[in-house]
Amino acid sequence: MTHVLDPGALTGGGSLTGPLPDPFADVTRSNDAFRAFLHGLPGVDQVGAETRVKVLGTRSIKTTAKAWAIDTAISMVDLTTLEGSDTPGKVRSLAAKARRPDPEDPGCPAVAAVCVYGDLAGVAKEALAGTGINVAAVATAFPSGRASRAVKLADVRDAVAGGADEIDMVIDRGAFLSGRYLDVFDEIVAVKEACGSAHLKVILETGELVTLDAVRRASWLAMLAGGDFIKTSTGKISPAATLPVCLVMLEAVRDFRAATGRQVGVKPAGGIRTTKDAVKHLVLVNETAGADWLSPDWFRFGASSLLNDLLLQRQKLRTGHYSGPDHVSVD
Amino acid sequence: MTSLFEYAPAPESRSIVDIRPSYGLFIDGEFTDGTGTPLKTVNPATEEVLSEVATGSTEDVDRAVRAARRAFTRVWGPMRPADRGKYLFRIARLLQERAREFAVLETLDNGKPIRESRDVDVPLAAAHFFYHAGWADKLEHAGLGPAPRPLGVAGQVIPWNFPLLMLAWKVAPALAAGNTVVLKPAETTPLTALLFAEVCRQADLPPGVVNIVTGAGETGRAVISHPDVDKVAFTGSTEVGRSIARAVAGTSKRLTLELGGKAANIVFDDAPVDQAVEGIVRGIFFNQGHVCCAGSRLLVQESVHDDVVAALQRRIGTLRVGDPMDKNTDLGAINSAEQLARITELTAAGDAEGAHRWQPEGELPDRGFWFKPTVFTDVSPAHRIARDEVFGPVLSVMTFRTPDEAVAKANNTTYGLSAGIWSEKGSRILKVTDQLRAGVVWANTFNEFDPTSPFGGYKQSGYGREGGRQGLAAYLSEGHEK
């Protein structure tokens, strides 16, 4: 299956820097009001969420369903390199892999995007020219987010100027945890504006928010502020993406669309390494938010090593036997 | 652009289990013919006849009771308690080793999804044997007297909703306490009990300690009314429970009854909605609603009624109904044509009384006994569907305004087996729990079972407890009278 990203889905939903969606027009009038709103969201029972995820984890995905899931998962990958030692050569190599993940099989779908640090967005853009694969850049003083707002916004503008189609921002976890919700909100609104036509993914860094109640509040905050995607993690903090967190975020986007008519995507990132993990996430999407989210326009995997496992499993389905790690390319 | 994620069928293979064309009774360690007219057991999902099973007559039951008495006085009673424990541990391990076989057979015979027989029934059955194996040589420390003694021969009659699990609930404590057993499984679901008989032989359990006599109501009556039975344990309908109580009255037999239920599942306005919806689903659609403690009356605080019902309907729309052998199935077949007829009749009463019926889209299989997951809203406590036990995938939704009203409505039933509370507020959970007349109250969860936790009811849900120390008391003398 080859999936061509729907450009309308990525850019059209944008520009929500104006008034808030209808039923929530008033909730950000003050920090107290916003706090009351976020804390008034239904609670999350941790045990119940974990039980639900465990049950869905026993879904048996085989044969045609597995083949579909693997190809869909590949098309949802944001192939990522976020190392201090990244170079243009490394990014070009990743771009080559993104456009043709399995050199032995041209029928293998391309990934959704290549995700790099902002200074390498230009290199990625050039390497991916004409492929339909997006360039995603992390910005806003990734991964800590500890910089002044001016620096963060400059970081965003720089990445967009370099050609980034998608910006992955981090929220100010310090402000969130100390209850300064309006500050976090304002910052996302400002970043969204700085993105221009680029698509904004808001990283909640759920491993630092810890509780599922906080994950639900942060999800709503990010969606109200205009985020096009909500993303679990930077990949630099453990735990990163977990299934219960993803469940709560999927419930949030589902409820948000029901309330406002606006659809927001979800991106688990970090720690998803195996096809089995990826398939469990897809089952979660299918049975929580629904089939509308089963596309790279609305669901992504932030991953680097996941792709090779997907490719190995794909080869297994095609040939009937397992091949070794030398049958897929190193990044 | 989006494609549906169509899960490919993933049916469990039935080749692991060897179903014989006919089965006899298991008496004194041997399979023997029954003298009654044999009955056929069918797969409720396909109506295929699985096997023919012997029916025990009064004479057969008498043979079984005599075998049990012999085993009790000569072998099992005098045996060192630690050795009894060894047998129970061995049975528990064999249940685990043959788990897949038991799960497949249970699903074929009962119609429940393989996911539930595999993940719930069989592991819990093994857990009950492990738990009670541990008690076998520690009975004097159970707080039931300094030297509690077994009662003798236990006559046990179990239902069709959890054939293997109910067997474990009955047999494990009886044996751990030193009693021997004559057990009659339900007429529609005898096969896992007969496979259990094979496990008893594999474990070298002395002959006569466990006897299994298959058959219908007549056979059950013979078991409970046999003069040499010391203890009667029954799980099933309140109607049959009443007749058993009458039959046992005036004799020296001990009696415990686990009967029907009409549990209230109370959702307060501060509940964790998504998890509450999961709990409502688990409460009423687990095992097709064939659960005596099913949360069949949903009491929702009026201020969140519409939201909860909408979320519930959306969630029910994702339930996968169909082939119970498919690992992805959530809701399987109704156990029998009779039960399906009863569910159909009671839901028709719901329509007639003015409640509003809702069922999800989708087709049911052509063959077999099926009923769609069903939600009735606008239900009043005066409606039959709010009072009678449907024992099927049918939920009745009512509302309340204050905690007091919730408690009053929850307790307004002739039953009292279980209840559920959904709230983020711990103090409210504790207060309401105290006021509910139910044997088990689950908070922010539903239908959780554990061998260490006693289970039993108030009012017409029966008397006595199973599981935990309290469950042992029903199989011991001295301690019980102390």
From TrEMBL, chain A:
Pfam families: DeoC. InterPro entries: Aldolase_TIM (IPR013785), DeoC (IPR011343), DeoC/FbaB/LacD_aldolase (IPR002915). Pathway: Carbohydrate degradation; 2-deoxy-D-ribose 1-phosphate degradation; D-glyceraldehyde 3-phosphate and acetaldehyde from 2-deoxy-alpha-D-ribose 1-phosphate: step 2/2. This is Deoxyribose-phosphate aldolase. One of its GO terms (molecular function) is deoxyribose-phosphate aldolase activity. The keyword Lyase applies. It is an enzyme of class 4 (lyase). Belongs to the DeoC/FbaB aldolase family. DeoC type 2 subfamily. Its EC number is 4.1.2.4. One of its GO terms (biological process) is carbohydrate catabolic process. Residues 1-23 are annotated as: Disordered. It catalyses: 2-deoxy-D-ribose 5-phosphate = D-glyceraldehyde 3-phosphate + acetaldehyde. Transmembrane segments: none annotated. Keywords: Lyase, Schiff base. SUPFAM superfamilies: Aldolase. One of its GO terms (cellular component) is cytoplasm.
UniProtKB/TrEMBL annotation, chain B:
It comes from the Bacteria. The active site is at residue 258. The keyword Oxidoreductase applies. SUPFAM superfamilies: ALDH-like. The keyword Acetylation does not apply. Keywords: Oxidoreductase. It holds the Pfam family Aldedh. Gene3D superfamilies: Aldehyde Dehydrogenase, Chain A, domain 1, Aldehyde Dehydrogenase, Chain A, domain 2. GO terms for molecular function: oxidoreductase activity, acting on the aldehyde or oxo group of donors, NAD or NADP as acceptor. This is Acyl-CoA reductase-like NAD-dependent aldehyde dehydrogenase. It comes from Modestobacter versicolor.
